[in-house]
Amino acid sequence: MALQEAIEKNLKRDTCDGSTLKEAFSAITRNLSHQSTYRAGLESLVICAETALKVRNLDVAKRCLETYFLEVRRYSGALARVEVRDQFLVRAQYALGCLVSALSCGLKGQPLIDGTLEAVRHVLAGLSLAEQNSKRYTFLLYNGSVHHWHVVQPLQRAGLRHHMLPSMLAVMAALNKVPGHEEWKIRNMMSMALCLADGGGTKAADTTEAGKILQRAYDLAAQNKLSGIQKEVAMLQVHLSCQGGDISKAGLSATRSSAPREPSPGKTRASPRGSPQRTSVALDEEGALRMIQAVITAKPADKGAAEQLLREAQSKVDPNPDGKGANLGPVARAAWAAAVLADHSIAKPTPAPARPPRTPPSGERATTPPSRVPPQGPPADTGASLAACAEKLASRAAVSGDLAPRIWAELARVKLSLRNAPQSAIEELDEAALEVHQRAMDNLDDVVTAFMKLKDVEGIHEAARLIWNAGLVLLQPNKRRFVKRAFNSAAKALEVISSPLHRLRVHLHLEVAKCDAGDDSLIKASQEVSKAGALDYVATPEERMQHALERPLDRYLMPLATSLALRTSLTQEPNGIEEEAVLLVERSKESRNPTIKRDLLARAIEKLSALPLIQPPAPTDSGPQRASDQVACRCRTVVWSDLLRSAWGNVTRGGTAGGASKGSSGVGAAPKMEDMVRTAAPYCLHAAWSPDVDREMVVLQAEVAFIEAEAAVAAIKRRGYEVLPPMKQVAPTMATAADGTQIRCPSNSSEQLQELVVQAILRGMRAGVSVNEPWLVLNGAVLAWNTYLPIMHQHRYCELHRVLIPAVDLLLQLNGPEINGSLVCIMAEAAAKSLEHTLLLSLLLPPRQSTKAADSKAAPAAPASKSGQRGTGKSGTPPTPPTALEPLPTYRYGHTHGYEVLPAARVKAAGLAPHSNPVSAAMLQSHFPLCTSNCEAALSKAGTAQSQSLFEAYARLQQLRGQAVSIPHGTAATSERTSKVVGVIEALARGSGGEPELREAMEILKGLPLLSVELWAKLARAAAGVQVWNVALECSREAAKVMPLGLELNDIEAPSEVPEIDSNGWFWLAVSESIEGRAIMALVRPRAQSDVTQLNLRRTALDSFVVASRFACFVRKADLVEHVARLAWAAAKPFLRKPLLRVSIIRPLGIITSNLNMLGAADRHFQVHLNVVLLEALSSGRMWAEALTCVDEAMRCIPNRSLHRPLLTWKAYCLAQSGRNALSEMTKVKEYIPEYQGHAWAVLSHHSAARYDQVQALQQSFKAVAMQPWNKADYLTEYAEWLISSGQNDGDTAEDVLLSAADALLEFDVGEEDEEEEEAVKKEEKPMAAEDPKKKKKKKRLGKSIEEASLDPNKPPAKLTAPLLDRLMRIWVMLSQVANSADEHTDYMLTAHHYAVRMLTSAIIAAHHVPKSGSSQPKEHPPAAPDATAADGTAAGGGGGSGGTETPADVVSESGTAAATAAAPATPSTAEGRSAEPGQGEQPGGAAGPGGG
Fold first, then answer.
1. What's the CA gap between 578 and 882, in Å, rounded?
2. If you average pLDDT over every residue of the chain, what do you get?
């Protein structure tokens, strides 16, 4: 026995390790294998096994137990009863159960359940042996219950507890034989009650039996005064009784507690001896906890009753909220319950994790349309009172001296802060709303840490759930870093307490792993993935069927684990071609070198494209290969999507319900390889996934389709084309894959790329409709809007009907709060305008000029929608379109002769009848009913969005159809009165109506409760269109009344001064002010008014134009600013006659010019000349410093330096007049071409006062053009003239300079023509002989057209043209003036005469050969380009980003011709009655400006 004692002594030491265990086991086995007097007993093996299990050495424990049971079977007869039926046999069974449980830890699903139940059987076998001698082995009965508790931990989860019920009955029977240990018995009784409630048998019977068991536990706790566990039993009783939502079953009317109540200080009373004493106020903590638990579990619909119950619970533990002596723990729990119920009452949908709206690529607009989106109406909030109650309770609990109540109060406050974040802002990923969640994550990290210190399991669970829910909206590529710390803390806390919330733990570990992988912490990411993979959770049969996996989240874990293993291992080789491609894709994500990245992706594409194409199983397929085929196809699709996302800049993939997604968490922007995307996308989209098979794959393919559309857009722009749908459907090129399957080739031609954009956008939107994911449909609509926005800015709507009409039809299939009313309105309006534009062009153009997509492959303009999918007008659904609609005629700018943009087409087609034209009549019968129904449906879905502009488009369609305009049924954003105003405006635009209708509309607008700036401005514009200027003036002034009291329009310098006016309001205020200025200009009567009166009116109009320009600048509308500048130019013409008048308009002209320079003008010539006019006004007031500042600003804002010549002229003039060091300032002109430099120096010399500056500037002028002798001669002549006029001609200086100038020009003289050659040229009937070298030389030398006679000053001339001959004549005349003798004088004059005759001869011959009018056919000119300043309301996004309303585009042509491309303001009339446009007619400045002579 000495050996056995030594072995047992070593095993029981605290320092026992693996080597000691092995030595002890070897010693025991050696001893047992030999016959020895000091033979060790079998109990040594049991002790060794128990020790091995403690140190987790399962191998030694297994060998010990195997040896033990092998030795036991050797004994037989009575000896077996004596030696084996002892405590060690029971302990061996317990150890075997623990060993099987430990070996089952790595299992999942049904194998884990089977392994756990096997371990339970061994524990029950030992427990049965111990019960046979319960008096002796009472301690083994208790130990057996403890071992059972640990062994069944994997089953202590909802949905699995019913497996424990048989064993729990046996354990409870055994525990009843053990005296004492009441608390442990109560714990087991609570566990047994949960097993019964989990559904082990009949639900009602089990619930009743569970209640009985809990009542026995409650009574047992009360008898033994175990108040702590008694409260837990009471809360569990309430929880089980209220699970059906019926709070009345909780039995809260009577107090169930029999525990002594805690005294609390209260009021004082007199003692028998007269000394004051405090009355004890009993605190019923258990009763309060019962009420709180009932509210949390039942979540009653009657929020008032729930609030009253929570207040009663507070009164039980805090009878005097302003005093002391309260138990604030239940108060904090009540605050949490109120916060949970208040959040539950909003009933808002939880946004799906990692499923954000599309992240726009670099340079693209935001994912919301470029318009002001009014917030959608919040859902009905019935929990505001509960939220206030929760805040009050939390404030009360926050003053507690204990940590636990304060932490629970903090948790409740975080919940309330998340509740207050607007759901609409969260769905749009508003930064302010996301910051609320970011702060909540930081606070929750501290909360879960505090709960860990308190060892509060319930608090850890609640905090972990809230962390996950709060972090869902932050699972975006650029926000994921904010969730990592909180997710990591929650995952660790749940791991420490061995939480049964396994699925939540898997989600947390997975997201932390993705964050670590994004930070290149690959080892930590692998550890998190391993932890997630080791956890088992219960999945519903539907999930397992849909994803063909026992653990649905393995569809994210397995690819991530494979990727991490390949990236971290130095020895592991890829298993197959697909894993090789995965490794290449992962390396491409890490690469920062575009060349290396492209090479890696190309190799991955080559490997993947060589594999045979696979298809997912059909929804009806139920064969044995369904699961494997689905998993294989899913993996292939994910690999292709990761490849193209890496090529497109490492866009994180989302779209999972659990927040799992593949990709890095925060990868910087990378070059977008659009060719790689277009190559990989067809393979990713080849698999025909069905929503019934795998919804997530349909979502993934929709996102891939959007990325492919963006890549096609990038390819089109890279080639220099504008993005525009083709005129008819273009079939893609098909190729044969490796397995013989046909697959779409990457689009290469521009037509195929244009078609790809349309089809990819519509494919993604259809996929979103099929899986009922509104965010996909909205993202597709936003992508279409952003893509074709430049075309809509140009009013070329008819070219977009192939994409707009189907997109609107898909948008209108959405229902519920997810729909974006503003987006639906602007898309429906654009679609209506595309149909209107097409009809108007069909009226204006002959039928032969419309190109119809007549082939059978052409897509229908508007696909039919299923009835009942969207609510529309009075019938509820739009009329079902015919099965085959006639394709719409197509028109294309630049291809269709006579093409007109929409505003101009409205003007030209104003008097035409659509029903008389066969093409338009067919459209009215087929397409217009569907489009008007779509408008009605969009108006009904608009909600609180601005739909006024859509209603106007709808009214135009109805007028074209010849039907009355009325408000569609269900329209919420318009009213009857505003619709009448819109009808008047549209009628005036169509040419019907006058001042009576305008006055009626004004009375309607005056009766509205709120002032509508937009409607007043539109009414003013309509009045101006029909020349009713008095009404236009009144309407404009009514619109100005939107300003707060005490503020005038002229005083506003920034939009922040009036924050209540949004960008849409500023835009329409600018429109109304511009119309007011035009109305004032209409009051000018030159024949009936004095000059002073006319100038005063024009000055008042200029003030209005200044305000309009400033407001247009607020919303960054360059076209409107340019239009106002043209109006101001027309108003300022009479002020330019005299210097004093020019000085009077410096301020308004300066503001308008500054705004125009800030935003830029489409007509840069106009911008230059407007700056010249301002410089002329400043020079009239001798404001040289201000003039220099203005000229520098103009040169900075006009990028085209070829237009800077007049600005350089004024800069030189102002420098000369300012008295500054002009020579040093003029060194900056070296950045320009030589001719501009010489001209600037010449101007400076003419206006310099000092003679030294004059001569220096003149010398610099011909030095600047030293390499251009044809220009140098001119400046040498100027120098000689200065020498003569200034008296500096000493000796022959001037003569030498002039002779040098003449020599420079004579280099281009190729000789004089003889008379015979001249006669030959004059004979038109006899063409010049090709073989005659003299005639060839003459033809080359003598110009025969005006074009050949022109001279570019920056290019060397081919001969002496008329300007050069004129210079030579001038040079010889000047030489005659400085001649020293009469003979020289005569020679010089004769030479000048000679060149004069040559100049006259050349001019006569050139004029003789000018083509006669009508001698040749007139050239056909292409249609004029759409005016850049004209923009349609909706296309431009509603005035600086406002949604769905008209934009500056309609304002540019406010002269009464709707949109005649700004013809009226472009050519303002002068006071003399003639017309001139800046840059095309007269030059502003005239004789008053600086010149070169």
1. 48
2. 75
